[in-house]
Task: structure prediction
Amino acid sequence: MCYQIDYKFNEKNLIEEFQKYVDETYKGHYSKDKFQATEFIVDGGHGTGFCIGNVLKYAQRYGKKGKSKDARKDLLKVLHYALIQLHVHDKENKEEVPHFDSTEYSESSFFSTSSFNSDPVTVDDKHWTLKDSAPDQISFNFEEDKYPTLPLILPGDRA
Result:
């Protein structure tokens, strides 16, 4: 059975663009004699600090330097250094690296209705309350004149 995903945020095209961006770094001034400076930094045991430092650098710089295209390139750099850090993480934690399991990354594995309380939330200045739903579906009721709070639910808080 072939399942075609209806991407809502242009992920397919953006991932393809990201792949081309990464490929270009191997052709450009970032690569000298088929080695990238990042390789030496990672091999020297400083990969995590270097990668996370660059993620923070380019994320904080986003939109503050140059034009819109420069801000967009900063986001590509954030993604690239995060991807390199994922490699560093996996390399340092070989025994803990799982093979990809799509159920581990599904929305229902991160969020279930039991993770939410019934406190109202605000979305686009409208007040909503979570209704009882199936675990893989979240639905809301609209309510006016409420002063809701948005519960912060982190992946580690899974129910």
Summary: DSSP finds five helices and five strands in the chain. Residues 11-95 form one domain. The first helix runs from residue 11 to 27. Confidence is low (pLDDT under 50) at residues 110-118.
